[in-house]
Please model this.
Amino acid sequence: MTLPSSRPKWPTLPDFFHDWVLVDVETSGLRPGRDRVLSLAMLTLDAHGNQTGEFFTLLNPGCDPGPVHIHGLTPERLADAPTFEQVAPQVGALLSSRVMVAHNAQFDYDFLAHEFAHVRSWAPVSRRLCTLALNRLVGPATSDLKLGTLAAHYGVRQEKAHDAQDDVRVLSGILRGSLGAAERLGLSLPLLECPPRQDYRPYVPKTPCPYRNPGRMKSGGSLVQGMKVAITGDTQISREELVARSVAAGLNMMTSVSGQTSVVVTNDPGTASGKLRRAADEGVPLVDEPTYLRLLGNVQPGRAKGTARRRPAAEMAASETTAQPGPGLSVPAPPTAMPVAPTAGTARSLTGRRVLVLGGAHDAAAEARARAVALGASAAVNLSASVTDVVVLSGGEADRRMPRITALGLPVHDADWLLAPTPPPAQSAAGSRPETGEVLVRGAVIDLPGTGTAWTVAATWRQQTVCEVDVVAFAVDAQEHVAGDEDFVFYRTPEHPDGTVRLATDGPTEQAVITDLERLPVEIHRVVIAAAIDGTATFSDVGAIEITASCGIGAAPTARATLDAATTERTMILAELYRRGESWRLRAVGQGYDHGLADLARGYGVDVTD
Model:
């Protein structure tokens, strides 16, 4: 296995000097823990890009190999291969003390982590680099960011797609070209810390409560399947047995109390426990254990959650016009275009351009980005090869990116240029190309084509951001509430139990929500995607967040939007995917709130522990 002969120079910046291990896996399916690794290829490079080792093996997964028509690995080919346990020491040695590199790295990392969990160990990876995330920052002039497309762009010959050994060879050339492009743009590498984790476990199917929450238990009434029940204090029978009997009866057992809780079980209502205080505040009824056990013997049938199906267009049209995103929250109406002086020949003279705004107070920078979008441009949050113009506001001259911008020969403008922009050249000196994907303003909506492939809504923010930003998702019903806490996907629970909604982290300033729209239960009317800032920081410290919607790994964006919250806001609804007739739509929302993530989650009916 050799690297391409016509390879570009390795970067010279010390920040890019790492020992690397490039990884590619072929698997029996797409869910780590449930599915297994069938083949594994690894290639090691030193800090200067010189190849120092390689490793390849087929693996006997002990299960059905899955889509043979894709990877070509039949049970017969794998029968005599070693198990992962047999090669784990060698794999661990190659991973140790190196930065792991993969294309869509979370996929490969999670599969390796679960394979190590199967042998009662953990993956010795401290940091990883995703070449897909890196190229989203670089913004190369390509139609998409798939492995084969990037290989052609960086001059790497691809011989056999979906072959781990060839894919890792191709990845080595893509890494070299990507690092060189990142160095020219002055980008920081999106290295993601991977602290040792021992919480990976073999996949165990987890079924959420199959019934919808019927609401509060009425005084003197019965328990109904789907009711949310919390227990506090000492119990006469073991807590585990009480929970098990409740779950078997079809009840939804919770560990905290919220406004959506149906009943709280307690033998001592006079105690000052947090659950009882919250129950009193929310008006949640209380019952003692003997009463609860008696009611458990006659739980009434509930309304089962449905499976995914199409609904009549008239029904969906009604739900679209009446639904609101949670109690006390509202979706902004599509805004009118910001006042922009007309330009001769066209009302949207920056169509296809990509504008980066530097400097200025938060409100001034947000207004400049909005003006650029109103003129047909997309607004960038980082310097990339796709940026065509730079607008410098007060203080922007001191931005650390200015020397790079000058070296790249990008046109630099002041704020007045957005009032009457001059016709731009067909292509900038940076060699960029017109942006792909429809540019959405705040509140705008597009129809999503039904392809049978999961949709990814990715959020990216400025690389220099010092505070932590968390992207989350709520799968909500017609009343804009989650049916259960499992419908809240966030950093502690990054995947819905049925795999329809999951969170992906590709770098320190990029996270994404991946949604399998065709598999969502019919009760899920929309998936709300939000961002929350940890601690006391606000969006004035973060700046704009850019979202992109794409269908398939590495696919070109179908739509993009750049959203600014106000200076005091700590959470922001970025976008929502919602049903419309027989299809789905995407709305760019951009609605911010001063409260934190816990309050936002409670607004959607999530039980949040104080």
Summary: Residues 164-185 form the longest helix (22 residues). The longest strand covers residues 583-593. Residues 336-433 form a domain with the Rossmann fold fold (CATH 3.40.50.10190).
